[in-house]
Amino acid sequence: MKLKTIIIDDEKYAREALKDLLLNFDLFEVVKEFQSATQALKELYKIQPDIIFTDIEMPGLKGTEFADIIKNFDTKIIIISAYTEYSIKAFELNIFDYLLKPVSIERFSKTVEKLQKELKFKSIEKLPVKNDEGIEFIDLNDIKYFESFDKTLIVYHNKGKSEVYKYKISEIESITKNKILRVHKSYAVNIEKIIKFGHLIGKSWFVTLNTGEKVHVSKTYVENLKKRLNL
């Protein structure tokens, strides 16, 4: 399930930066972006967004004023601002989260985890995958890594590879109680299978699994991976 998302910020580069950040999580579908809260207010009931990301200091309505106007609307508001002084007011308005610019992927990951809990993603003991006869279940301990492409999620496991049933890569960490770690917008690995982490000079970061397989790690996820590996 993707969350219908709108972005409100008067600065184009800020909107672009946020969209780039959201691409790391297959949870959001940006359906519209606005330069002002006044513009967004006119289309809010037509769009019916699940999530609204908004700046505060903008021409016309401030983000907090906008939030106050729509406080009874069934949506979650996340403020992204360069200013800390509005945080108390924001939470009085029942804002879902308050992020300071520039937003790191580590901080944003916590927001995503919070969202997923709100959406009640339940943890699983076995992963459902498709086969010729229907659905079978793979033990989490048998999983090596995941690869996502063209709206399809493939899991590589001890018996080969399978297409994952129902779940997206953005949900994998939560449903596996963080046994599986996202290391790239397209890859997630079983952290217990990692035996080596590094990079070649002038080339990308990677992890090596105990099977000898290498999985690409994007720079965006390097620091989070180091923390999980206690490096």
UniProtKB/TrEMBL annotation:
Domain HTH LytTR-type: 127-231
Top-level taxon of origin: Bacteria
Occurrences of domain Response regulatory (ranges): 4-116
Pfam families to which the protein is assigned, alphabetical: LytTR (PF04397), Response_reg (PF00072)
Residue numbers of 4-aspartylphosphate PTMs: 55
Alphabetized Gene3D superfamilies for the sequence: 3.40.50.2300, LytTr DNA-binding domain
Keyword Transmembrane: no
Molecular function in Gene Ontology: DNA binding; phosphorelay response regulator activity
PROSITE patterns in the record: HTH_LYTTR (PS50930), RESPONSE_REGULATORY (PS50110)
The keyword Cytoplasm is assigned to this record: no
UniProt entry keywords in alphabetical sequence: DNA-binding, Phosphoprotein
Name assigned to this protein: DNA-binding response regulator
